[in-house]
């Protein structure tokens, strides 16, 4: 267990080797063992293996090739549709078309996704979480026929690794952990916490390639830019509304 | 790994035995190995062991006793505060005070939380995710001194189990998995998927105790009621706004 967690690396190159049904079933079952709000299981996992569909999903994921190369793409969705239908068929009056339940269902979906990721890795598979899912949710909804009450919140590609990357750096533990209550960060704290990351050879190369002074500027100017943040933020809220999750909000 | 995942049960009764610092550190480090958006690590983990603070947190968690009994409470927060401060001190212009980044940071926090939960269980500890965190976020923000840019999204209590519950039931895999695209549920699908859960002895007892016709009614009338959903949904959105995460939205 711990070895799997501490060995995790994101895999960006995959073999085309398919995943046996029995292994796939085991990792999906692992997803269902994660904690879930009131045992309501308000999530769904959409497993896409069809080549044409994966090509469509690849387009939504800013054409990052692992989505076409890996044999399996799993889309984790916040889903109150199934639960609400059950209520209706059982003479109960569901009221889950609001932001609280969008977020509740997202928590369920994300805990399940991390179990699936780890169970895949424990089986010798590699995984990659695809960031663009929440940027391109509307297109994914179209491709996967997601009904009202369902929003994709995370995508995993899964397959046999065709590379062996090293571990990625992380901030020291004191950078992300607070004891008792939150202690806000002074300039000195920030300098100390980010020192190791900023001193990496990899960081120096990035600065040269991108012609930037600081690593932070690569985040703000290149990777996660103001205009994109504004655009995709509005889009995401709009998708949540369109999928029927703002029934109690203006 | 797989054994830990498949053996997971929520623990509601704890011994007062403290957790060794070295074990606590290992499970927190396990949290940091989870995937994180662009390796930005936009989350924080607040570890609360102080008895008085845990009592205050217990009050926010609808006074569920495990929060006072277990020796450690970990609050997982969406956090763009540290990352934004780093940008500012590095001559970069952060723009992460919007809904997109609230959700991005929530994903980071939740993936980390599931790694912590599993690493705890692999060390013989028990865990319980506390549902009320997103209902009572404002009070938790006060207790833990969370600054702007930080919202609690999940709480784990962690400690040595003082009970040995069996596995909780789950829907059959076909109930939560779709192949290729989403297939919406017919009445027959719902009947089949929920049959096992509805036939459980435990369900029959719940119906008797609650004087209800169907299990779904226990969810809609007792556990997750319309008025509460409306109230807490507005509260949660308001807290997200107050913490500065709706800078680009009206």
Per the CATH scheme, the topology name of the domain at 2-165 in chain A is NADH Oxidase
SSE arrangement of chain A, N to C: HHEHHEHHEHEHEHHHH
The first-level CATH class of the domain at 2-165 in chain A is given as: Alpha Beta
Question: Which regions of chain A contain 5 or more consecutive residues with pLDDT less than 50?
Answer: none
Structural class estimated from helices and strands of chain A: alpha+beta
**Form type of chain A:** globular
Q: What is the helical fraction of chain A, as a range of percent?
A: 40-55%
N-to-C CA distance of chain A: 45 Å
The fourth-level CATH homologous superfamily of the domain at 2-165 in chain A is NADH Oxidase
Strand content of chain A: 5-15%
Q: What is the C-alpha radius of gyration of chain A, as a whole number of Å?
A: 20 Å
> Counting H and I runs of at least 4 residues, what is the number of helices of chain A?
12
Which quaternary structure do these chains form?
Answer: homodimer
CATH architecture of the domain at 2-165 in chain A: 3-Layer(aba) Sandwich
Q: Give a quick account of the main beta sheet of chain A: strands, pairing sense, barrel closure.
A: 4 strands, antiparallel
Most extensive chain-chain interface? A-B, 121 and 121 residues
Q: What is the mean pLDDT of chain A?
A: 97
Number of strands of chain A: 5
């Amino acid at each position: 267990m711990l070895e799997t967690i501490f060995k995790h690396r994101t895999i960006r190159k995959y073999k085309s080797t398919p995943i046996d049904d029995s292994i796939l079933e085991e990792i999906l079952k692992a997803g269902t063992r994660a904690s879930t709000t009131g045992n309501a299981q308000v999530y769904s996992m959409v497993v896409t293996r069809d080549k044409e569909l994966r090509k469509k999903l690849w387009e939504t994921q800013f054409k990052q090739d692992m989505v076409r190369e890996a044999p399996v793409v799993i889309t984790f969705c916040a889903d109150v549709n199934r639960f609400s239908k059950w209520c209706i068929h059982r003479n109960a009056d569901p009221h889950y078309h609001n932001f609280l339940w969008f977020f509740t269902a997202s928590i369920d979906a994300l805990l399940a996704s991390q179990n699936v990721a780890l169970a895949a890795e424990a089986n010798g598979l590699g995984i990659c979480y695809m960031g663009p899912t929440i940027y391109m949710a509307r297109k994914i909804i179209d491709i996967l026929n997601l009904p009202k009450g369902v929003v994709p919140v995370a995508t995993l590609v899964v397959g046999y690794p065709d590379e062996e990357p090293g571990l990625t750096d992380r901030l020291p533990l004191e950078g992300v952990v607070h004891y008792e209550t939150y202690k806000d960060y002074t300039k000195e704290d920030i300098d100390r916490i980010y020192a190791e990351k900023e001193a990496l050879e990899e960081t120096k190369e990035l600065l040269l390639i991108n012609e930037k002074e600081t690593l932070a500027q690569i985040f703000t100017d290149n990777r996660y830019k103001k205009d994109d943040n504004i655009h995709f933020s509005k889009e995401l809220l709009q998708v949540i509304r369109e999928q029927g999750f703002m029934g109690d909000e203006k």
